[in-house]
Design a protein that fits this description.
disordered N terminus; 256 residues; binds zinc ion; two-stranded parallel ribbon; 6 helices; Aminopeptidase; alpha/beta; 5-stranded mixed beta sheet
Length: 256
């Protein structure tokens, strides 16, 4: 029974329809088989990542000169998490005012899309798991914050991708910060945790489901969901938050 379970597990790791392997008589040799298959799977994944870096998935262009903006909704559709991102904690997201972080982020992203589309810009909303190596003119990940040890924490944070190769991500983050502060009454926090610039969806050096390094990419924590003051913007008036994000992106697109 145990052997059968492990056998199914080995097959499912590499997604083989007809896995072939010898029935091992002891756990040690089964572990060795798992290690070998894992190694092979990582080699295949790496080859695919290299190919995708050359031929990234990208938003369908409505016209050749239309700018394409990708807005990632933090934690949206986390149940579709692939094997390589299995370490992502599906439960770990902010909540407050009866809403989960993904719901609040989705409403802000939808409002941001409306503003950008009215300016003739193409917008694609992306879930937590990106298409493999995704290319666009701008990528912004939208989140809401929570700090269990500081229940009255307030403010927003913006960070540029640490994996950026466009040379533009820092400017994008700067403009997002300036415009978001103008559009909302929230203060910009100076402390940026490493989880922001090293956000998994920026990390195309490790993951397949990440943004292309030549895409200017930034992440915004729009405000604290447990704080009623911040919620008045991000939950009650998502249009305000969206205005800040959209204006930051519009300013950025004017420059590049
Ligand atoms: Zn989040």
């Amino acid at each position: 029974m145990r052997k059968l379970f492990i056998a199914i597990f080995i097959g499912s790791i590499v997604g083989l329809s007809n896995p072939t392997f010898a029935m091992a008589s002891d756990v040690a040799s089964l572990k060795a088989q798992v290690d070998k298959l894992m190694e092979q799977a990582l080699v295949i994944r790496e080859s695919l990542r290299q190919v995708m870096l050359q031929q990234p998935a990208q938003a369908v262009l409505a016209s050749t000169d239309q700018k394409q903006v990708a807005l990632q909704v933090g934690h949206w559709k986390m149940e579709e998490v692939p094997w390589e991102l299995r370490a992502l904690d599906q439960e770990r997201q902010a909540q407050g005012g009866g809403k989960m972080e993904w719901e609040v982020s989705l409403a802000i992203a939808q409002e941001t899309a409306k503003i950008l589309e009215a300016e003739g810009i193409g917008v694609t909303l992306l879930p937590a798991i990106l298409p493999s190596i995704y290319r666009a003119d701008v990528f912004v990940a939208i989140h809401a914050d929570q700090n269990p040890s500081l229940p009255y924490a307030s403010g927003f944070k913006v960070a540029a991708s640490a994996f950026d190769q466009s040379g533009e991500a820092k400017r994008l983050a700067q403009l997002l910060g300036e415009e978001y502060r103008k559009a909302t009454w929230l203060t910009k926090e100076s402390y940026i945790p490493a989880s922001m610039p090293y956000y998994y969806a920026f990390n195309s050096s490790k993951f397949l489901y990440a943004v292309h390094p030549a895409t200017p990419a930034a992440i915004i924590e729009t405000g604290y969901l447990p704080n009623p003051r911040d919620r008045a913007v991000i939950l009650t008036n998502p249009h305000m938050a969206a205005q800040g994000i959209a204006q930051g992106i519009l300013q950025f697109l004017k420059e590049i």
